[in-house]
Each structure stands twice: as C-alpha cells, then as structure tokens.
Design goal:
Blueprint: H1 16-34, H2 42-58, H3 60-66, H4 73-88, H5 90-124, E1 126-129, E2 139-145, E3 151-164, E4 167-181, H6 188-198, E5 206-211, H7 218-238
Parallel strand pairs: 2-5
Antiparallel strand pairs: 1-5, 2-3, 3-4
Helix pairs in contact: 1-5, 2-3, 2-5, 4-5
Length: 239
C-alpha cells in the first residue's frame, strides 16, 4: 500500500499543488485496493489521516489527546510548531487551509466508497449462535465461511474492553484454530462438540457462525468485518 506520512501536509515545502499530487497518488492506491474489495488496513488508514487533519485544524491540544500512540514525539513537536506558525503567518495559514480543505474533501469521498463496501459485506452476513450461549460470552469460537470456501474456518475469539478519553471501547482478538470441510459430517454443531472435547480450556464456550454467499478476500475484508460484526452482535444481544 502506498504510504502517506502522518504529517504529510506539514512535511517539506507547504505548497498546495505539491501536496495535492501527493494526496491523489495515495488515494489512487487506496482505491485500487477498494476495487478488489480489500478494505483493511486501507480504510482504517484513510480514516486516521482524515481525523488527523480534523484534529490539526481544530487545535494542537486535540492532537495530543487523540493520537498519542501513532504520532512520534518529533512529529508532535513539528505539528505544534506548524500550528503556531499558522496563527502568526496569514499566507501560510491560507495555504494550509487550502490543502486541508481539499484533502478532507477527497478523503471523505474515499471513506464513503470504503464504507459502502463495508456495508455490502456486513449486510450479506448471516450471524447466529451455535447451540446454547453461556452467560459469559467474552470468549469462545467464531465459525466463518463465504461463498467460495469449501471449509468452515474456526477462530478462537476473546473480547476486551478498554477505556480511552472517558469512553469504553470493545475490542476482539482472534486466533486461527483449524479448517473443517463443509459437509453433512462436519456441521457447525459437530465442530462445536469436537472443539469442546479437544480443547479443555473452554469447556462451555460461546460459539457463533458467520457466513455469506458472496466472496471477499479473507484477511483484508471477510475476517476483519466479521470480527466487528461479532462484537456488535454480542453487545446487542447482551443488552
């Protein structure tokens, strides 16, 4: 994937035309992946850059609060200095505002395209529990398959909850376990029974299946969207 630095709009000479072509080359590469229905990490990367522009335009304190993990101390210092120069230099401010306004518009269009693909994938999913679900569904197994695969892919999952800026977020970690051929013998219920017998660490696991008749790239789209859908499904049914 083409790389756009975290501070691309502030790197080197602040020139609208130069930054425009840098941005368009990046978005062209992103769209090339989207055309193949490959969403991740491309979609998350564009959203990061879009939010970074919003943060910079609003104020530097916002940047410090929202992007401490990805931005280095050197980049933080560069953005803070640039922000101060913007306030003091009307010409620089105008050029940067033009760059940011243009970039946000273009990125927003690309994000919409990625979101439409995401919604297509999500809407095609059938999600259902396999057997009875225990009261504690924070960990268990995910069975995944699409219209192309002859196998049911089995993943162990574990939900996590983390806090950031006075908000709680749900995350999910998955680990690939095994693939079972889709046939009358290896039904989802039978696979669940085998897992309970073979993997004593989860004697009463929560098990969910997600399948679709459509075909999507596994690691770039099918699995990451399935993980997010599973988190949402569990949260909705636990409420």
């Amino acid at each position: 994937m083409g790389i756009l630095s975290e501070t691309w709009f502030a790197d080197g000479y602040i020139d609208f035309e130069q930054k425009k072509y840098t941005l368009l080359a990046y978005l062209q590469e992103i769209n090339r992946y989207f055309n193949q229905h490959m969403l991740y990490p491309q979609l998350a990367d564009v959203i990061f850059h879009y939010n970074n522009l919003v943060a910079f335009r609003e104020n530097k304190q916002f940047i410090q609060q929202h992007f401490p993990k990805r931005l280095t101390a050197l980049n933080m210092e560069k953005l803070q200095l640039l922000y101060e120069q913007m306030i003091a230099d009307d010409e620089l401010m105008q050029e940067l505002e033009s760059i940011i306004h243009y970039a946000m518009s273009k990125m927003n269009n690309t994000i919409k395209e990625g979101t439409e693909i995401y919604e297509l994938v999500e809407d095609s999913f059938n999600i259902a529990p396999v057997g009875l679900i225990p009261l504690d569904s924070q960990e268990g197994y995910l069975f995944l398959s699409d219209g192309r695969r002859r196998d049911t892919l089995v993943y162990e999952y574990r939900l996590t909850i983390f806090e950031r800026h006075d908000e709680k977020y749900r995350g999910i970690h998955t680990q690939y376990i095994e693939a079972y051929q889709k046939n009358l013998v290896y039904s989802c219920e039978h696979i669940k029974t085998l897992l309970i017998r073979q993997r004593k660490k989860l004697p009463n696991p929560a098990v969910y299946r997600i399948d679709t008749e459509l075909v999507f790239p596994l690691n770039e789209t099918l699995l990451p969207v399935a993980k997010r859908c599973l988190v949402k499904y569990i949260a909705q049914n636990a409420a």
